[in-house]
Write a structure and sequence with these properties.
Elements (H helix, E strand, L loop, with lengths): L1 E3 L4 E3 L5 H17 L4 E6 L4 E5 L1 H7 L3 H7 L1 H6 L3 H16 L6 E9 L5 E13 L2 E10 L1 H17 L11 H11 L4 H8 L3 H14 L5 H11 L3
Antiparallel strand pairs: 1-2, 3-4, 3-7, 5-6, 6-7
């Protein structure tokens, strides 16, 4: 297998190299001009990656020869172990039955050339040229976005009070709750709202669960503190 330094690609001589390159040369040029978009192209019939742009090379650094040698096996081994099996199964399914779906979107973590873990958004798009089926892998480093999301999540959790159960109940449940507070029995509530007795009992049960109390008395007491009954 030969590596072409002009495009950072690996090539098997049996493929019509120059005709294929002529067809996708603009894709390769665009890939190498990009500083942020990480691109790698996988030949489905040949079961090998043949191109990766400079951003991809910077991502893996000294690990790049291992990637060229082992392909997907190396990529999966370089992921977080708790994510690897799920991602591997999704990728293998996509490659096994390629024309059932032409796009696969993934998000996971890998280790870069420095050993740091980074979060990648990964899109795999299926194409066919010169009787060759290939998958363009677009990878986006969303590590900083993930960190911002985590920070916002922590701030929200720290500043928020426990979930307000009043926001979790439906308009019908609110009607039932107010009638319960007024002292109506389940049978009376059913008659008043034109629902079955069973439904009225279910609403009462769901309200007790949502307000996390043990009985109707506790339900009325807690609900009256946070909403108008």
């Amino acid at each position: 297998m030969k590596q072409d330094n002009a495009y950072g690609l690996n090539w098997t001589p049996s493929i019509g190299r120059y005709s294929f390159l002529a067809e996708i040369s603009s894709i390769l040029d665009s890939g190498d001009r990009s500083n942020n978009l990480i691109v790698a192209i996988y030949l489905l019939e040949q079961k090998r990656f043949f191109y990766n742009n400079r951003a991809f090379q910077r991502l893996l650094g000294y690990k790049l020869p291992q990637f060229h040698e082992r392909g997907w096996d190396f990529w999966f081994a370089n992921m977080w172990s708790e994510e690897a099996l799920l991602i591997k199964n999704k990728v293998n399914d996509f490659l096994t039955v390629p024309f059932d779906q032409k796009l696969l979107a993934l998000r996971y973590h890998i280790y870069d050339a420095t050993g740091s873990d980074i979060c990648l958004k990964h899109e795999m798009v299926l194409h066919r040229k010169i009787e060759l089926t290939f998958v363009i892998n677009y990878l986006y480093n969303v590590t900083e976005k993930e960190r911002i999301e985590h920070c916002l999540s922590r701030i929200t959790n720290c500043n928020s009070t426990p979930t307000d159960p009043a926001k979790l109940i439906s308009p019908r449940e609110e009607e039932v709750l107010k009638l319960i507070a007024d002292g109506y029995s389940s049978k009376q509530i059913a008659d008043r709202l034109f629902i079955s007795n069973h439904t009225a009992i279910s609403h009462r049960k769901h309200l007790i669960e949502k307000f996390q109390v043990k009985n109707t008395a506790q339900l009325i007491k807690k609900a009256s503190k946070i909403m108008e009954l």
